Records
---
Amino acid sequence: MKKRLRVRGTRFDGDKLSPKRRGELAEAAFLEKVVSLGFQVSKPWGESGPYDFVLDSGRRMWRVQVKSAHCNGKNGYTVHAHGNNREATYSIADIDVLVAYVAPEEVWYVVPVEVFLEIKSMKLFPASKRRRSKFEVYREAWGLMRRKGK
């Protein structure tokens, strides 16, 4: 049976929503998660910037881009590591961390920008016992933003 994204007790079937709406739901889930972890969070005005949120870890500010995956294909979940310009990936000048949300599994990946400078997407297999993604080391890695200081 397929899991459904839950936000504030309401169930949403990700397949029936537009990509924009799925992104909005992932951002709402992100807000709930980071506030529950004790981060201070700010949302920049408008949608033209390269990052979605700014997190204050107590040591520094983090520019965060939130991405989500809602459909598990034969090859796992795909999270795209680029903005509206599909040719250019995010850079160190754009963001500090990409947070990927695999909505049906309710799993988060916290990936520093340096990891995906040359790639355009990430394959994730959070429920698989056999297939492992090289990005598994970043699964629920919220501590990365607590330990690194600048």
---
Amino acid sequence: MKVNRLIEPLVLALALSVGAVGCKTNPYGVTKLPNGDANKPGNTGNTGDLEPGTGGKTDGTAGTDLNSTNVSGLAAGPGHPGWPQDREPLAPYTVHFDYDSTVIKPKEKTKVQAVADYMKANSANAVLVEGHCDERGTDEYNRSLGERRAGAIREALAQMGVDPNRVDTISFGRDKPVDTGHSEAAHAKNRRGEFVVLMPPK
């Protein structure tokens, strides 16, 4: 009898622990929100990425370790409402990102530099940086990710000598894909930051 009384609580505790573990699984295709374990290997969340301006990584890529030019506290825009827009001049310099990342890769940094050079040569103009994502993840998460991508580009421009008050940002999340396919190639095209020239009203 005493043995049975000891076994019953153990069996109950084991059943509860198995049930709790089973509840922790995530549905396929749902992107995890960033958390304190984001930098652990194997985490499918926002791995290795930080809010623009918070620093942290020291690999020299834009969007990370930007304490020397922290512009994240400034109003990100739109700071130039009503200014005429022109998408053509900076269309070739669209920046593409890795999956779930806000880090500007070295090969993409040359595009940001070209935009910085344009901004220095056209000092009356401003620029709008649009953040975009692929179709995976929730609307809310992708709007946040697009905002952080645009913010990372804005900080990179500031590091290159562009007044951040001339750089507005906006996130479209996954709402404006350039490729409506569902392949990895389509996703890669849609993970991007685009530049729109803003000209002073005449």
---
Amino acid sequence: MPNRCSATKANGEPCTLFAHSERGLCWAHDPENREKRRANAYKGGKAKANQEIAHIKADLKQLAEDVRNEELDRAVGAVVSQVYNTYLKALETERRLTELGEVKERLDELEEIARRRYPAQSGPRYRGR
């Protein structure tokens, strides 16, 4: 019977997945899969955002047609359009924050590599911020 993963989840509980590596870790915790996990998460996030934007575009197109055909009051259409615009700005802010977090994570990794590779030069420039 396979062993369970020896890693601890972010919430402090032990991982319940089966270990598949020689290190006694599951695929999700094995450092060898880090880039694959990151790429999969990035693709998943992009797909969700793209679907959301596609729905908003369809709604805005329908909104414009309803206003044009006088099936919806222009004032109501304008307000709904403003709400969608605010929502799109929030999506863009969320995307930027996610990208910034990814850049910070990569920078932290590079600083850690530099600290290990050049310990004598690990002055204030390489210390945690």
---
Amino acid sequence: MAALKSMLTARALAGATLLIVASLTLAEAQRFVTQPARIAVDATPIASFDNSDPSRTRFGALEFRGGLALASSERAFGGISGLRVDADGSHFLAVTDNGSWLRGRILYKDGRPSGIADPEMAPLLGADGKPLAARGWFDAESLENDNGTL
């Protein structure tokens, strides 16, 4: 009887271990989007670049006009590495460390960024049309336009 109990305990432990490993694998697999999807993004305006001197807006040839701290409950959101903003300053396209595209529209109030509208994520695809993240390739670091190909 003790041997049977020990065997059942070992099987239960092995089953629990398998369940945990499968859950972790599934959780990792869900860290990227599998198809284009609208997401919710909270945007909090950043009023100054230099917290020690909020009135300072010039940094060499650059002028700080404002910024946004972005957050989302979407698991794939975050790690924005490459960013392109249209010449009109409105629409943007970004790549993330989780193997996704992020696009949307920057909202302005009094000439300063105030929010994000129409945020949407989609998977970065390989030459075969399959999501790169599905192969374990996540980390995009930049975004460049090569004659209309990004």
